[in-house]
Design a protein that fits this description.
The complex is a heterodimer of chains A (about 375) and B (about 100). With about 375 residues, chain A is of the alpha+beta class. Helices cover about 20% and strands about 35% of the residues of chain A. Chain B has a domain at about 25-90. The chains are: A alpha+beta (about 375), B alpha+beta (about 100). The interface between A and B is large, with 46 and 33 residues. The complex binds FE2/S2 (inorganic) cluster (FES) and fe (ii) ion.
């Protein structure tokens, strides 16, 4: 019987991305739904981006509707001024600021042009050693600027998207590609998927369904929520290097916001406009892919005891890895972080899938033939 | 407080089955590392490392010393060869058992 289990009570420990720094550092306050509440994000005169609980510790005013005054965020209710360090700096009508006037603050850092914040239910200081790596060339002329999109997933746990790391077969059914090579490695705070795929010719360009499109993909989660996906795409012999970021922020115990951003290495001799056009095309394609996933998540049941066949990836080992972010740091076991390597045999699956696609194509051809007579 | 909070005892048994069943110990022919291996086909391979064996592996040590550190994708070719040898010797049998 399907064991749907129960939703985890806490949010994962680790770095979470709130968006592109350029979007958030425009001098105005931004509200970001996260971790069951709302955060306020603003940049000060030094250009530092600060993140605090979005509700004022005084009497709950909505700081995201406040204004930036100097380096501080000012509450729209009684004008208390909050600094990026979480301390109240001034109360314009008070003789003195209470020493205890502090609010919840999130440590933040800008990495690869993205605002990352540290979350830990236990309140540990941010661990900078496990930040995602710096991407060489990103933010320079070599790459296009990040595209950025956000998808709301209101009724699923974010563990569903993490499951994709090991889900070989869904690439055929949901994303319309033949995964011809598929490998996983989990170690420490990282989980990686290696995949090579070609598009399905029977899907007329839907999703990744284009037989002229060959993808070589290496995708690594750095912690519970932030994945960097290095892709080499080959479209009719035209090679493109794409970096896709796939990350999410849990908004509630059973909801999250999926965010994706993409940059392409500008091909030699191509003007910026064309490079941006290529980036937009790929961004749309992966966006369609995510929408296909979202549709599944919004309708499926959570499963703690998946029933697997030989062609499936290591779902249980991935879940074991993922659990490290949901237990107290002291309760992280060796099994959760120890290196695990896995390679699935895709030969049989691809034989069956090729036959299915051939059948689809001949049926389609027969239909077309009758339609024209 | 855990991520997976199963509501049935069978789920715990499934977790054991999929993560631990049929793992055969394979020792590296070149160093002191030992790993748990499961091969469902010639190609389909699971390799479970443990902290001690990871520390023993000379190949991983060499990569750890590199300026950019050891990339997660790198696997140990010597261990790979040792696994192939274990298959040839009949010490490691290839075959799936009802999906796990
Ligand atoms: S509630 Fe924010 S200043 Fe009073
Ligand atoms: Fe997917």
């Amino acid at each position: 019987m399907l064991d749907t289990g129960s939703v985890p009570e806490r949010f994962a420990r680790g770095w979470h991305c709130l968006g592109l720094a350029t979007d958030l550092a425009d001098g105005t306050p931004h509200g970001v739904e996260a971790f069951g509440g709302k955060l306020v994000v603003w940049s000060d005169t030094q250009g530092n981006i600060n993140v605090l609980d979005g509700y004022c510790r005084h009497m709950g005013g909505d700081l995201t509707q406040g204004s930036v005054k100097g380096d501080e965020i000012a509450c729209p209710f009684h004008d208390w001024r909050w600094g990026g360090d979480g301390k109240c700096k001034a109360i314009p009508y008070a003789r003195r600021v209470p020493l205890r006037a502090r609010t919840a603050r999130y440590e933040s850092v800008v990495r690869n042009g993205m605002l990352m914040i540290w979350h830990d239910a236990e309140g540990s200081p941010a661990n900078h050693d496990i930040l995602p790596p710096e991407l060489e060339g990103i933010g320079t002329e070599r790459y296009t600027d990040w595209t950025w999109n956000v998808l709301d997933v209101p009724t699923a746990h974010c563990g569903e998207i993490v499951d994709n790391v090991v889900d070989m077969a869904h690439f055929f059914y949901i994303h319309f590609a033949f995964p011809t090579n598929f490998r996983n490695v989990f170690e420490g705070h990282m989980a990686t998927q290696f995949m090579e795929s070609t598009g399905r010719p029977d899907m007329a360009g839907e999703g990744y369904g284009d037989e002229d499109l060959i993808l070589k993909s290496e995708a690594t989660y750095y912690g519970p929520s932030f994945m960097i996906n290095w892709l080499e795409t080959d479209y009719k012999g035209f090679l493109t290097k794409v970096i896709l970021v796939n990350c999410h922020v849990p908004t509630g115990p059973n909801s999250f916001k999926l965010q994706y951003g993409l940059a392409v290495e500008k091909p030699d001799g191509l003007d910026d406009k064309t490079a941006r056009y290529i980036a937009k095309k790929y961004s749309d394609m992966f966006g369609d892919g995510f929408l296909q996933d979202v549709h599944i998540w919004l309708n499926k049941a959570p499963v703690q005891n998946p029933l697997l066949c030989e062609e499936d990836g290591p779902v249980y080992q991935l879940r074991r890895w993922y659990e490290q972010f949901y237990v107290d740091a002291a309760d992280v076991t060796d099994e959760m972080t120890e290196r695990f390597e896995f390679e699935v045999d895709t030969t049989k699956a691809n034989e069956f899938w090729r036959a299915e696609v051939e059948a689809n194509l001949s049926r389609k051809a027969a239909e077309d033939a009758t339609a024209t007579t | 407080m855990a991520y997976i909070v199963p509501s049935s005892a069978d789920t715990l048994e499934d977790q054991r089955l999929y993560t631990q069943a049929r793992l055969t110990e394979v020792a590296c022919l070149d160093c002191l590392a030992r790993v748990g291996v499961k091969k469902n086909s010639e190609h389909h391979t699971s390799i479970q490392w443990h902290a001690e064996s990871l520390a023993e592996c000379t190949e991983f040590r060499r990569l750890d010393a590199a300026p950019t550190g050891r990339p997660i994708r790198a696997s140990c070719p010597r261990m790979q060869a040792s696994i192939d040898a274990a298959v040839r010797d009949g010490q490691l049998t290839i075959g799936a058992e009802d999906g796990y």
